[in-house]
Amino acid sequence: MQPILKNFGKLFYTGDQPGVAQTAKLANNLMAAAALVITSEAVAMGVKGGVNAKVLIDIINASSGRNSASEDKFPRAVLPGTFDFGFATGLSYKDVRLCIDEAEAMGVPMVCGASVRQMLAITQAKFGAASDFTSIAKVVEEWAGVQMRG
Question: What is the pLDDT of residues 97-111, one digit of tens each?
Fold first, then answer.
């Protein structure tokens, strides 16, 4: 089975306890959504301050702010204005909600996670569950009164 699974990505052994891999998946999905939200806010601020969006993304990617959104989602879906990265807002919202619910059941506070969930809820309300989750950037653009196009 491992040779087949290796075609889908890197394999990790999380132990024999049920649910551990799901917890890891939820944590990862929260961080991916959080990176998209914070990158959208930072780039909107930069654009509002006069920095070209593509130049700012290049600076971020050569610096300590580099993340999955700045390296992949912004260049592929936000800067060109296509907002078609390939992951639905509704699915991202569900993943983040599940993560926060699980964390709170464990007694782990999710202050930033709750903000990410709220941004996804707003994006879903505005653009629909089927919209691409990079549409978060469109919400931030509207609020900031800028367009993040490179």
Answer: 999 999 999 999 999
